[in-house]
Sequence to fold (363 residues):
Amino acid sequence: MNINQDNKWDYFFRRAVDWVFRVKSLPVRLISLGASLVIASIGGGFVLGFSVSSVSNLFQLNFSFSDAPEFLIFGAFFVGIFLIVVGLIVAVCDYMREANRRKVIIIEQRGLRVSPSIPLSSSLKKYKGSRHLISMDIRNKDNEVENPDTALSEVVHVNRDVRQRMADTDPNDTSIVYGGLMPVPFTFLTGMLLDDEGDIDVFDWDRYQKSWRSLNGDDDGDRFQITGLNDISSDVDEVVLALSVSYGVDLEAIERCFGSIPMLHMELPNGNPSCHWSLVKQQELGREFFELLVKLKGLGISRVHLIVAAPNSVVFNLGRHYDPRNLPSARIYQYEQSHEVPYPWSVELPTHGKQASIKVTKI
Fold:
């Protein structure tokens, strides 16, 4: 708000009056009353004056007591100070009580060979409240996901863990924060499982700044270009849906693993590993993803094989767009470039009443 120099004091006075009289909390009432007593005692207890010495040409300050009884003046002054101190103490206690009532649920997942040593919680200084960490590391001692079935058994309970920590807490007093570096199938599944948990603040690892970062960047307007949709014939009931965001998907590997199954490709023309820091952009990409799946459902597609090359936060948010009741059944695949089978396993998503499960790819 711009305030002209001439009326800034008037503006300040009006804002001060608003603060004193409109806010009805006990600390404000105590501080206001105490301040009034202090001001009244000073104003009523002393008569102040200025004069200029004719000899030294210097200012002189003269003061004297008014006719009010001294004990009333000093009594009002010290009672006012006491009320101000009590008001401040009550305000601090209210602040601490508010902070303790709030909860911050932090979900951090690790499952890649190279993961940051800096915990997500260290980057969340702005979040106030008691912290409840849901930490998940699905790697073995060699930093590898040795058994996808064992890893899946940990991931599928994430929404249960969140609800347990939200028990007996007003949702308005709860903040949920997510961040991780996990294999694509488990990240996507996590997003899908947490879709009903309300607002989630998503963080991602910035490999250049070496820190966790929120999705606070500008939207560059880059959106998916879709190819292959017009090639879907009426007798097809399953498709491969590939998404290229950070890197281009391995089209040769897809053809080797999925043979004659038709493929659709959603590709960002300017995709790169750092193109995902805008929350608005991610929301728009999720909308386009969802709308294409709805079209596929309308074309009679009953199963979608998902191949995604994207940063962790994008994969998580795409998972939050996958409706388990109204969209086709789906499997989302893990990519291993040097593996004999480049897409060796997938997670069968929990759609249409099915449980999530690991499926081994057979060529």
